């Protein structure tokens, strides 16, 4: 599908412009907007795959070749393909996004690829993002008007000055029915675009009116920094709407995936290996201004699985580097309920989960206003493990002075202990729970064990499902074939004629044979310039699905050599590849000679014998050339 789309769109964006975008794009920078990357050795980077859940990083990026590949799910490609998959963009939209990022002016051609023409229309996503960007400027300008006095007072009363309002793009939706709508229509946005973006809505009379009115506005940005929606706070008593009104679900705004503040917090989250989850926009602002720069908040929905996936990728939350997730729910009943719900999701994290609750049940914004920045930092520093909080509040619901109360508390608390993902900690929590309940340890142990055995598959007691295995490397010959193909894909200028000179018959593994054939179909290594374009050409030329996946894998897999490869290494690899093939033919030839009667088939016998001597001589020369080995 990718290859077909490339072929289709290449006729509308000039081929040389697409190549220039690929050349000037840093794939590591593009992917780092979404995934935290760490060194994987050999110049490669690794992170948690954004396309499937995993506990160990199998997502690899090769900056030198501008390609990526996931050994877990088999996805891979270049920077254009990453944006297509990660943000559900078309090929053209991805190219245009990267071109804008690199400062490249794209040129478009007619279907006959003749005269250049301007792009007739941007993709839908770009149009919706552009509409939101224009709306941000409109709302920000309105915040300085006389009608926005109540909005400015709201911010000031919560300790946010003009600089803070500007930093977070705060604005005001005016007391008018269609002022934003008219403003955006004058800028060229259509009726359908404004409705689709969630910025306007049809009125009862059929005309188009603003969705937000008389409210304090916060732009909601996705992790890359693009504004994709708004959060609107009620200011006036005669406003009969909800306290907070958010953008509805749109093609670019999915509330279950969005975390407010993630665009500003992502680098500190990755650096510190820690994230603070708060409940509102003002809490995020208060935390950031109080030097807790890792704070984020959900946008009008409960914290859930999709939010966890986003945070794990930014945290690099893996077996190699478990992160810290700190929740700051209020201490009231609703906050306690949210904390217990968060504990249910604890298993989705590799890292440890904590909760930080102010003694006065104040949220971070209230705490900063009442006691200053230091109090906010202390709140986070005094965090306690979420399981401790959950157990304490669970058993506090029962009368422990009665037998029935203690037994029921044990029954309700045992599943929480059974869900602790670090099994080595469970015995300690069993003892702690028994002590808190005033019970003997044995019945508590039995209750926890029963809860653990009764859990469905997929919880902490069930092993994680292994990722799909990479193509099997089952012999020295197969390893050499693999190395030769890596050289062709990663170092075509170096491998060049030496690779092409070795016949395809030297490859035995079926998938390797398919990839070798695709390299020939793509024009051979000697003519390749390398990089993402060359790798995509080989992938597109491969008819075998397993071969297509292997191309992406080999493009990022390190070579089996310390340091940079040189012509000698290529020569050794190709000699070993041929030696394996030649020795196989020698073995087959010897077997055939043994089956021939030299008396009745004298001519055939001596012909085969002469071929055998020639092959053995060739094998000796190859063995000498391959001295030093892999």
UniProtKB/TrEMBL annotation:
Manner of cofactor binding, per the entry note? Binds 1 zinc ion per monomer.
Zn finger intervals (CHC2-type)? 49-73
Write down the InterPro entries for this protein, in alphabetical order: DNA_primase_core_N_sf (IPR037068), DNA_primase_DnaB-bd (IPR019475), DNA_primase_DnaG (IPR006295), DNA_primase_DnaG_DnaB-bd_dom (IPR013173), DNA_primase_Znf_CHC2 (IPR036977), DnaG_bac (IPR030846), DNAG_N (IPR013264), DnaG_primase (IPR050219)
Q: Does the keyword Acetylation apply?
A: no
What is the superkingdom listed in this entry's lineage?
Answer: Bacteria
Q: What is its EC number?
A: 2.7.7.101
Could you tell me one molecular function GO term of this UniProt entry? DNA-directed RNA polymerase activity
Q: Where is the composition biased (Low complexity)?
A: 455-464
Location of the region described as Disordered in the Swiss-Prot/TrEMBL record = 455-475
- SMART domains referenced in this protein's UniProt entry, alphabetically: DnaG_DnaB_bind (SM00766), TOPRIM (SM00493), ZnF_CHCC (SM00400)
The GO biological-process annotations, alphabetized, read as: DNA replication, synthesis of primer
Keywords associated with the record? DNA replication, DNA-binding, DNA-directed RNA polymerase, Magnesium, Metal-binding, Nucleotidyltransferase, Primosome, Transcription, Transferase, Zinc, Zinc-finger
Q: Which SUPFAM superfamilies match?
A: DNA primase core, Zinc beta-ribbon
About its domains, the entry says: Contains an N-terminal zinc-binding domain, a central core domain that contains the primase activity, and a C-terminal DnaB-binding domain.
- List the NCBIfam families: dnaG
Its job: RNA polymerase that catalyzes the synthesis of short RNA molecules used as primers for DNA polymerase during DNA replication.
* Record family assignment: Belongs to the DnaG primase family.
- Record protein name field: DNA primase
Q: Which organism is it from?
A: Micromonospora chaiyaphumensis
